[in-house]
Amino acid sequence: MTDGHPGDMTRERMAELLSWASDGKLTVEEILSAECTLPALGVDSLTYIRLIDAIDDEYGVDVDMGGNAAHLDTVDGLVRHVAEARSRAGRPPDVHRTTTERPRTPEEMT
């Protein structure tokens, strides 16, 4: 649950997207309470690919997996990356591009 701070809302939404991308193998609660990196939590490359597609679909932000990808290691890093990318583009940092309650499935994206 969030306390109403926009960053918390975005953090919770990022955890929801990550849970969806993992096919429910990770719950939102597990993700938000984890005290380790996402790979240590069990996030694999397929989950990252699905998450990156969902972030692009929902926030209109490209997430680069190459180079220094430290922003991919934690939910907070992903949230910061999305907020900074949206800010550079002159858009609010935590406003969803879509109004869907869930990310689109891969079938819906094609």
3D structure, described in words:
The chain is mainly α. The protein has a single domain, classed as Non-ribosomal Peptide Synthetase Peptidyl Carrier Protein, Chain A, CATH 1.10.1200. Helices cover 54% and strands 0% of the residues. α1 packs across α4 and α1 packs across α5 (75-88). The protein starts with 5 loop residues before the first helix and ends with a helix. Mean pLDDT is 78; it is low at 1-8 and 97-101.
Topology:
Layout: H1 6-21, H2 28-33, H3 38-41, H4 45-59, H5 75-88, H6 106-109
Helix pairs in contact: 1-4, 1-5
Gist?
The chain is mainly α.
According to CATH, what is the class? Mainly Alpha
Total number of distinct structural domains: 1
* CATH architecture descriptor name: Orthogonal Bundle
Write down the overall mean pLDDT.
78
- The shape, in one word, is globular
Give the low-confidence spans. Answer: 1-8, 97-101
DSSP summary: helix tally: 6
Structural category: mainly alpha
The residue fraction in helices comes out at: 40-55%
The profile of the biggest β sheet is:
none
- How far apart are the first and last residues' alpha carbons, in Å? 33 Å
**Backbone CA Rg:** 13 Å
> Could you state the order of secondary-structure elements as H and E?
HHHHHH
Strand content: under 5%
CATH topology: Non-ribosomal Peptide Synthetase Peptidyl Carrier Protein, Chain A
Count of beta strands:
0
List keywords for this structure.
110 residues; mainly alpha; Non-ribosomal Peptide Synthetase Peptidyl Carrier Protein, Chain A; globular; disordered N terminus
